Amino acid sequence: MPLRCPVEEQRFVLEHVVGIHELTNDVDIVDALLEGAAQYAEGEVEPLNRIGDTVGAKWSPEGVAMPQGFHEAYRQFVEGGWGTISAPEEAGGQGLPLSLGAAVMEDLNAANLAFALCPMLTMGAIEAIGAHGSESQKRDYLPRIVSGEWPATMNLTEPQAGSDVGALRTKAVPNGDGSWVITGSKIYITYGEHDLADNIIHLVLARTPDAPAGTRGISLFLVPKVLPDGSCNDLRCASIEHKLGIHASPTCTMAFGDGGGATGWLIGPEHGGMRAMFTMMNNARLNVGLQGVGIAEAATQRAVAYALGRVQSARAGGVSKDAVAIEQHPDVRRMLLRMKALTMGARALAYYAFGQIDRGHRGDKAAAMRGDVLTPLVKAWGTDVGCEVASIGIQVHGGMGFVEETGAAQHLRDARIAPIYEGTNGIQAADLVGRKLGLDGGLAFDGLIADIRAEIEAPALVALADAVEMVATTLRAADHDDRLAGSYPFLTMCSVLTAGWLLERQARAASGDSPFHQTKRAAAGFFIAVVVPEALGLAAGAEAGAELLYSVDAEALA
Amino acid sequence: MPLRCPVEEQRFVLEHVVGIHELTNDVDIVDALLEGAAQYAEGEVEPLNRIGDTVGAKWSPEGVAMPQGFHEAYRQFVEGGWGTISAPEEAGGQGLPLSLGAAVMEDLNAANLAFALCPMLTMGAIEAIGAHGSESQKRDYLPRIVSGEWPATMNLTEPQAGSDVGALRTKAVPNGDGSWVITGSKIYITYGEHDLADNIIHLVLARTPDAPAGTRGISLFLVPKVLPDGSCNDLRCASIEHKLGIHASPTCTMAFGDGGGATGWLIGPEHGGMRAMFTMMNNARLNVGLQGVGIAEAATQRAVAYALGRVQSARAGGVSKDAVAIEQHPDVRRMLLRMKALTMGARALAYYAFGQIDRGHRGDKAAAMRGDVLTPLVKAWGTDVGCEVASIGIQVHGGMGFVEETGAAQHLRDARIAPIYEGTNGIQAADLVGRKLGLDGGLAFDGLIADIRAEIEAPALVALADAVEMVATTLRAADHDDRLAGSYPFLTMCSVLTAGWLLERQARAASGDSPFHQTKRAAAGFFIAVVVPEALGLAAGAEAGAELLYSVDAEALA
C-alpha cells in the first residue's frame, strides 16, 4: 500500500495548533518542505520498509551491512538536506522551527521507522554539540553532522545501567593533550555501526577518574569512528540484537577500547554529562513521540485501504443482502475512526509541544517550561497511541492482519519499541509527577490547565479537566510511592485532555464541507465522545495510591 | 524461564467459581489431573515453545514437518490421555467436566500456544461429531479422534468467505454410495497438515448441489486425510502462512479435489452445516478465550521473574541510595499487579462459562443459556486481556523485552491472533448485542446481571452494574447501527463486571494469611479499584451511537 503523507493535515495543525506563521516569516517554505518531504518519504523511503524488515541489518566482524536500497535513500537524505531543517544556520542548517522539522520526521517515521532512526539520533547529537560543544567541535564536526554526512549516535546504556544512567562504568582517562582514552562497553546503541556513511560520531557517556558516584560524576564525550587524522578509532560493534521489530535499525553492542583505548573529546564541562544528555534526550523523547504518530498514520492508512477493498457480509439490518466493503460495518467504522482520532490527537499534542519549544528558543520562558511539561506526555502517550493504533490496524485486517506479507503486523512490531527506549513510559510518568508537576512552583503545569480551561467547550472535556486538577492536587500532596503509583494513568489523563483541547480547537476551525474538514470534525467528535470519557475512567487508578501494590510480595505474583 | 502452572489458583477457581464438587463426585481426580497436566505442560511442552517459534512448521510439497521435539511431546499427549478428559465416555473419554478440561488446556496454552492448537481444534470436532455424527462415524472415528491418534481440523474459511461463512464455494456432490465428492479450496486451516499423526480428520463446510444461498445452504463433511481403505484422499496442503506468531502451528491453504475430488461423508443433515459449525465453534470460542488466559499467565510469570532479578535504581524517596530489584518501584508493581489481576479475572470468567455449559449438559437450561451469553465475553475479552498482559510484559522487561531471545515478545506475537480467529472480537460483540442480549426474551442476560447484583459489595462494581444495565436498555431500544456501534465497549463492560464479581467472591473466600490468599485479595482489590472504573469510562462510547461514525466517508479517513 503506497503511503500518502498527510500534507493537508500537517499544514492545518501547524497553522491552528502551532501558529507556525508566528515562528517563521517564510510561509511558502512550509508548503514546499511539507510537499518535498512527502515526495521523498513516499517515493524513496517507504518502498524500503518491507525489505528492511525481512532482510534487516546484517552484522559481520567487518561491520554492519544495511539492506539494499538504504544507501541510496540515505544519500538522497543528505543531498536533499532533510536533516538540516531545524539545525542552526551557523552549522549549515536552515534555522527553521523544530515544529516544521517534526512534520518531516513524522513522514520518515511513517515511511520507515528503522530508516528514520538514523537521522533521529543525529538530531539529538546536533542539539547537544550545539548547546555544549566547544568552538572547534562546532566547527569541525557540526556541519558534517547537520548535513548527515556523518550521522551520530547516543551511547548511554550499559548492561547494569539502563534507566539508571548513573550506574554506568565506561571510563575516560585524560591523555594530557586535551583528548581522553575511552574504555568500556555499551548496549542498545541504535545505528552504532553501519555502512551508510564514511564516519559515525559517537556521543558517549563515561566516568572520569575520581568522579563522584551516580549521575553527578558522568561526562559526555565525542568519539568519532574515524579520527581526524583519518585512522580508525579503537571501537567496534561486537554484535547486534535480534529484535521484535525495526529490523533494519542495527541495535549494537559497542566495544570502546578493546585495543587499548578509543580516543574522545569532552563535550561541555567534566561531570556535565547529565545536562548534555538531557539536551539530547529531551529532543529524542519528543521525536520518539513522533514515531508513535508516524506509525499510527501509516497503520491507519493501511487499515482504511484494506477496509475499503475487502467485501464481506451484508450490512446488518439493511434491505440489501449483498456483501459490502467492511468499512461500512459499524464496528469496523468505529475502529477506523478511533485510529484516525488517536492519530490526530497524538499529532496535535506532539506538534504543539515542538511549537512551545520553538517559542522557548525565541525567548518565551513560559513556553519553554510548557514544552518541558509536555515532553513526557508526547513521548509516553504518543507511543502508546502508536501501539494501540497499530494493533487495531491488525484487527481491521482480520486473518490477513496476522500474515506478515500484509504489512500490518510490522507496524505493531516496529511500534512496540517506542514505549521503551529514550526513557521507558514509566520513567516519563515519573518525570511528570516528580519534576514537571512542580516545575516553576507548579505554575508551568497549572498554566497549561488554565489555558485549556479557558478554551474548551465540550462538557466531557471540562469533566476531564476537573478530574486532572483533582488528581494533580492529590498527587502533589502524596508521598513518593502514592504519587508514582498514580503516575501512569495521570499521564494518560493529561495527554488526552491536552489532545482533546487541541482537537476541539481544530474542529471549530474546520467548518467547511471538504472531506478533510468533515474528517477533522468527525475525529475530534469521536475523541471527545469516546476517548475523553475513557480517560476520565483512569482517575480512580491515578488516586488509588500504593498501599494495595505493596500488600503482597512480588514473589507471590509469579 | 520455567513455567509453573498455577495449580493452587486453578483449584481455587474450580471450587469457588465453578463449584466443581457439584459437577463431579470424584474430587480426587481434580487434584490428580491438575498436577499431572502441570507436570506435562511444564516438562514436555513449554521447553518446545522457543524452538517452535524460531524454527516453525516447514512446508514442502510432501507435507508439513513439525519442529524437533513436537512429535515426542504429541506422542506423550496421546499416551497421557490429555485430550480425553471432557470427551464422552462412550468414545473413550473420561466424561469429566469441561471446566476441568479447561484448566488443562490453559496449561497447554501457557506452555506453547502453537502446540496446544492441535488438541484445541480436535476438541471442537469431537463436540461436532458427538452431537451430529452418525453412529458409524461415532464408532469408526470418534475414539481415535478423542485419543488424539487422529487429530481433527475445522475447514471453514475461504478467501471470499471469512466472517461471512455463508459465502463459501467449496462443493460437495453425492457419489450415490453415501459418500460425497468434495472440491474446493480453504484458507487459514490450523494444523491442516503436519507429521504428528498418521491421519488427520478434516471437518469441511461445503455447499451441496442446488443448496440455498448463504448460510442455510451449507453442510458439514468428514473428510479424512487417509481413507478407510488405507489410500490417501485427494487433498493436500498447498502452502502455509508466514505469520506474526504461533510459528509452529501450520496455517494451511488446503486444496480438496485437485485430482478429481476428495471423498467425504456428511455430518448431520444436509444443509445443517451451520448448526454443526456452531457446535464446533462455540467450544472453540471458549477455548480461544482460554488462550488469552494461558498467554497472560505465562507473560505474567516471566515478567515477575524478570522484575525480581533486575536491579536498577534506588527506591524514590527511600533512605537507601542502593539500587533495588525493579519489582520494588511503584509503577513496575502497578504493571505486575495489573497483569495478575487481569489474568485472574479472565480465568475466573472463562472457567465460570465452562462451568455453566457443564451445568447445561447436566440439564440446567438456564445455565446453558448463560453459557451462551458468556461465550462472546470469554472469547473477546479473554483474548484482549492476553494481548494487553503480553504487551505489559514486554514493557516490564525494558529494552530486553524487545529482544526476541527474552521470550516476552513471543507472547505478544502469539497472543495477537486470538482476537481474530474463531470469529473476530468484533463478531463476538455483534453476537452479544445481536443475539445474546435478547436470548430467552432477554432473561438470560438479565438473570446474569441479577445474580451479580445480589452478590457484589464494592461500590465501584455496583456503579458498573448500573452502567451495564443502562447501556443494555439503550442498546436493546437502538437500531442495528447504533447497537453495533456500541457493541465492543459494551462487551468489555459486561466482561469486567462479571470478572469483577467473581474476583470479589474469591477475595472474600481468601481470608487467610498465605501468599496465595494475599495475592488473591490484592489482585481482586486492584481489579475493583482500577480496572472496574476504567470499564465505567467505556459507557459513553457504548451509548455514543453510529451517527458520528457515518458522518464522513471512509475514503476521507485514509
Throw out a few tags for this protein:
globular; 558 residues; homodimer; 12 strands; eight-stranded mixed beta sheet; Butyryl-Coa Dehydrogenase, subunit A, domain 1; Butyryl-CoA Dehydrogenase, subunit A, domain 2; two-stranded antiparallel sheet; Butyryl-CoA Dehydrogenase, subunit A, domain 3
Written account of the structure:
2 copies of one chain form a homodimer. The first copy, chain A, is of the alpha+beta class. The first copy, chain A, contains 19 helices and 12 strands. Chain A has helices at residues 7-18, 27-45, 49-54, 70-80, 98-111, 113-132, 135-140, 142-147, 273-309, 330-361, 365-396, 408-415, 425-434, 443-455, 459-477, 480-485, 487-509, 515-536, 539-542; strands at 58-60, 63-65, 152-155, 171-174, 180-190, 201-207, 218-224, 235-240, 251-256, 262-267, 311-314, 323-325. In chain A, the strands form 3 sheets. In chain A, strands 3, 4, 5, 6, 7, 8, 9 and 10 form an 8-stranded mixed β-sheet that branches. The first copy, chain A, has a two-stranded antiparallel sheet with strand order 1-2. A two-stranded antiparallel sheet of chain A has the order 11-12.
Major sheet attributes of chain A: 8 strands, mixed
Q: How many distinct helices of chain A?
A: 19
- Uncertain runs of chain A are none
* Strand percentage of chain A: 5-15%
Largest interface: A-B, 110 and 109 residues
Give the total of domains of chain A.
3
Portion of residues within helices of chain A: 40-55%
Give the second-level CATH assignment, the architecture of the largest domain in chain A.
Answer: Up-down Bundle
CATH superfamily of the largest domain in chain A: Butyryl-CoA Dehydrogenase, subunit A, domain 3
